[in-house]
Amino acid sequence: MNCRKRPGKPEMIEKRDRCRRKDSKDEGRDNLRNWENKKIGKANVDRLRSRTRGMICLIAAAFLFLLLQPCLLFAGDAKERYFEAEAAYKILRNNPAKQKYRQYWLECIKKFEYAYKDDPSGAWAPPSLYMSGRLYLELYKRSRKTADKNEAVDNFERIIKKFPGSRYKSKAADEIKKITGTVVSKKPAEQKDLSSGAKKKEAKEEKNNKVAPVASQQEEPEKPRDPVKEKENYDQVKTPSEPADTLKEIIAAINLRASSGVESQAPKSQGIVTVMDLRYWSNPNYTRIVIDADGETGYTHRLLKQDPSLNKPQRLFVDLANSRLGANIKKVIPINDDLLSDARAGQYEAEAVRVAVDIKSFKTYKIFSLKNPFRIVIDVWGNRGEEVPEKDGDKSEEKKIGVGDLARQFALGVKKITIDMGHGGNDFGAPGYIKGIHEKDIVLKLGKILAGKIREELNCEVIMTRTSDKYLTLEERTAISNTKNSDIFISIHTNAARNKGAYGIETYYLNLATDDEAIRVAARENATSTKNISDLQTILNDLMQNAKINESSRLASYVQESVCGNLRGKFDLIKNKGVKQAPFYVLLGAQMPAILIETSFISNKRECERLNNPMYQDLLCDGIVKGIKNYIREINPAAFLSTSPAKGTGGG
Fold first, then answer.
1. 424 in the Ramachandran plot: left (φ > 0), alpha (ψ -120 to 50) or beta?
2. Radius of gyration of the chain (CA)
3. What does the pLDDT look like over 404-442, one tens digit per residue?
4. pTM higher than 0.70
5. d(Cα 564, Cα 570) in Å, to the nearest integer?
6. CB-based contacts of 423, cutoff 8 Å, min separation 6
């Protein structure tokens, strides 16, 4: 009902007035509410606008700040990346197996490059560039690729140009000087600083420059500084690389080295080492020189051509990094055989020793390192097997005698056999299951029994590397056999394993190991770790074509079968573990068929007792003699037609 349309009557008028008052009150309330809402909305809008303006100003300020200071945005990332790269380099430096592969060096270099790119003008840019250069330099020393050297120089030059105030500038300049022989000029202020007595600071920076233990090799200086130093007219040669972790890596490393021509050895640096001694063994056709040091260090070697203008013969030298001459070392060792004149040792640089060998003539040579203790072995072979000119009146044609022909020729008359009894002196060898029994004593007894039987049954002269409890280095044993011109080399040992239940007999010859057990046995007999035998694995690639490998394999087969067959007639549980191949130090460089016999497991209770049993010893040696005899008879059925007393010598 609309109150406003029906006036007239008093009650209707009163009702109308009430309606009007109510409408007016409602309208006022609505107006007040609307006004309050408008006020609140305006405040919210103002507040929102204020916040928006604040956010815009803050974002603009932050963007402007970061635009003016970009290094602050990436400095943290650059630092983190640098330390990541440094950690990767440390892993590479401690893993000689990976050092053989180019990809691992490049991965490490890329990490330092990422650290530089994250902050190209920040505090971590110079060290990142410097480390990239150092790693390229290390890669160049292994690959000999000019591109790697150029990359190293480029990184060092960028430091000098972009960061003239960095302490890495002087380091980069020193590296460029070493690589190119060019002195990077310093600013006048820097020259003044040096002339005013800043030598201590320079020496400190030089010390800080040694950031990478792997970079232990020395660059060739411009001029020689003592009589041992030579000119740089050299031929590139190969050196064994550091050990690989697994058989797969070892074999891959051999293939890599065959194509890359690596010429340096750089094991983990252990500080300054002392070169203690030079030793050698010689005959007209073979010379072995050993350089003894009191710790492991890197080395390089090169063959220098003859220089008639300076009256210099052909020379072979080995440079040992981070090393000094011992106080009592004999610096000149006269050799004067058909191959070499002498060997000389000198302090080539402040922290580098050079050993130079003057050559008369040679056919080939090998240089490799052995560990525990560390020593470098130089084997030089003569020209036996070269072309033999036709004599006057001789109707036969000129003939080139090959390695296989030589093997057949010496086989026609095996007259001299070297027996090597493993270990000795302070090297006890493997401990026996029975307390007080040691490998060195067992093999000495076996060697003496075997020597007597060989003289009696084979009519051969016997050379014994030792006849008493005497210590001999592994390289000395092979050198004795080579210099005595032996026709066969037999090294006698006893086996051992952590598993006391392991037993059996096995015979080895020098070659690439084919299983992990062979590597383990070689590591134990070499008195080193399984990782430290891969330097042998790598150089064995060259020996694969040598006829002595095949001859050694055949000899090992005959001996293995004869020993096991002979023992089975009197003893049960004789396990034939077969013929195996592995890189044994003592067999390395042998010029004749050479085998190593693991007679039985001294760590096994039953076989330890048997090894100490005279009947077992006698039958075992009979088996070895029978195997040698079968080997000789196969290649020369008439070898035993003559019978005359044989002589023998011992090693003391």
1. left
2. 40
3. 444 444 445 688 999 999 999 989 999 999 999 999 999
4. no
5. 11
6. 429, 438, 439, 440, 443, 493
Please give the structure tokens belonging to residue 277: 């001694």
* pLDDT, tens digit (0-9, with 9 covering 90-100), for 23-56: 666 666 666 666 566 656 666 656 666 777 777 7
CB neighbours of 235 closer than 8 A, spacing ≥ 6? 302, 303, 305
Question: Rounded CA gap, 395 and 391, in Å?
Answer: 8
Residue with tokens 């590479």: 92
Q: Provide the CA 545 distance to its chain's centre, in angstroms.
A: 24
Query: What are the residues whose beta carbons fall under 8 Å from the beta carbon of 432, sequence distance 6 or more?
Result: 438, 439, 442, 602, 603, 608, 611, 612
Helices then strands, counting H and E runs in the chain, come out as 18, 21
Closest listed residue to residue 478, CA positions, set 556, 586, 594? 586
Contact in structure between 282 and 335 (CB atoms under 8 Å): yes
Q: What is the rounded distance in angstroms from the CA atom of residue 117 to the CA atom of residue 155? A: 13
- Decide: 269 and 298 in contact? Cβ < 8 Å: yes
Cis peptide before 120 (omega within 30 of 0): no
Please say whether the beta carbons of 533 and 523 come within 8 A: yes
Integer CA distances (angstroms), 524 to 43, 161, 294, 430, 433, in order: 88, 54, 21, 9, 17
Q: Could you tell me which residues come within 8 angstroms of residue 511 by beta carbon, excluding any fewer than 6 positions away?
A: 540, 543, 544, 549, 553, 581, 582, 583
Provide the 8-state DSSP code for 313.
-
| Greatest C-alpha distance within the chain | 172
Predicted confidence at residue 201, as pLDDT, reads: 40
Q: Which amino acid is at 487?
A: D
Give the integer Cα–Cα distance in Å for 542 and 549.
Answer: 11
Distance CA(430)–CA(498), nearest Å, equals 11
Q: Which residues fall within 8 angstroms of residue 464, CB to CB, at 6 or more apart?
A: 418, 419, 420, 421, 447, 448, 451, 648, 649, 650, 651
- Contact between 354 and 318 under an 8 Å Cβ cutoff? The reply is yes
CA nearest neighbour of 422 among 496, 362, 533: 496
Q: How many CB atoms lie within 10 A of CB 399?
A: 11
Instruction: List residues bridging with 316 in a β-sheet.
Output: 303, 357
Q: How far apart are CA 570 and CA 565, in angstroms?
A: 10
Higher confidence at residue 587 or residue 231?
Answer: 587
DSSP-derived pairing of the beta strands 299-304 and 234-235: antiparallel
Contacts of 299 (CB under 8 A, 6+ apart): 217, 239, 264, 265, 318, 319, 320, 321, 369, 376
CB atoms under 10 Å from CB of 231, counted, come to 15
